Amino acid sequence: MLNLDSIEAAQQRIRTYVKRTPLVRSRTLSEMLGTNLYLKLEIFQTTGAFKVRGAFNKILSELDKAGKSGVVAVSGGNHAQAVAYAGKVLGCRTIILTLKSTPRNYIDATRGYGAEVFQFENITQAFEKVSEYEREGMLFVHPFDDPLVMAGQGTLGLEMLEDVPDLTDVFVSIGGGGLMSGVAVALRSQKNIRIRGVETEGADAMARALEAGHPVEIHPTSIAKTLGAPSVSDRTLALAKEHLKTITIVSDREAMQALELLLERVKVLTEPAASCTLAAAMRLKEHFGPENHVALILCGGNLGMEQLCEYHAAFSKSR
């Protein structure tokens, strides 16, 4: 079950394995939006993204099984690196199933942590292969649809409220919904904070699910590749219905413009999957004033130089 107790237990369980990342106020962005604007810098987390929180909580919770038979995960990005790193630290054999289209920098980093990486044409093939490994006794670490994974991700929400008790609004990216779920429960179990979900066009599985009333399968096309879950789950959809104040879908162009703004003015490099939160906050800035304390979760920063140059060139030409 995902609740405040399970998230607090996760915080104790993983605290020696993950970083307590900073939550900082940006004067520049605060002035631009006319409010108090904070950045939760998960880009400085080990492996460059929040995913290690959930990976460690899941594996540590079932370490007898993981240590004996190993762990397996499906991911095209940050979850792969997180599970690979956690497996290396905890001494577990780790297998990552990913796509042939996964950027090289993700593959190199994942193998660098000692994982065995196998690539597939599509995500369906990868998930089918998981079943074989589970029958062999391996522990499957789902990228989002697991209460232990969600609880691990929710620990960053506990840190945010400890650092800024006056928080009123939090923008969080949504891929499959695990981060949103953990953070929403962590925060709203203690205070009536407005949780504002963010997706990009072409990676909007949650918005489509909310509209349809059930998970909808999509074929992701956004440059925000780490938001590219083919669908959300019944569990994360239910939590979105319960906790989201708004959900904003921004374009890849807006996400890239926000990424460049963060790089130029705040001196941090994020992924489009993280910078989209700034794009959404700028869209909704009329809702905020000096009395508000608004935080953006910059969930990851694993953008390779090749991708950065490619995206910059593509969106600069079309302006």
Main sheet record: 6 strands, mixed
**Overall geometry:** globular
Count of distinct strands: 10
Q: How many structurally independent domains?
A: 2
If helices are DSSP runs of H or I spanning 4 or more residues, what is the number of helices?
14
Give the DSSP E fraction (strand runs of 2 or more residues).
15-25%
Instruction: Classify the helix fraction into a percent range.
Output: 40-55%
Order of helices and strands: HEHEHHEHEHEHEHEHEHHEHHEH
- CATH C-level name of the largest domain: Alpha Beta
Give the oligomeric state: single chain
> And the CATH topology of the largest domain?
Rossmann fold
Corresponding CATH architecture of the largest domain = 3-Layer(aba) Sandwich
Gyration radius, in Å: 18 Å
Instruction: Average the pLDDT over all residues and give the rounded result.
Output: 94
The low-pLDDT segments are none
**In angstroms, what separates the terminal alpha carbons?**
47 Å
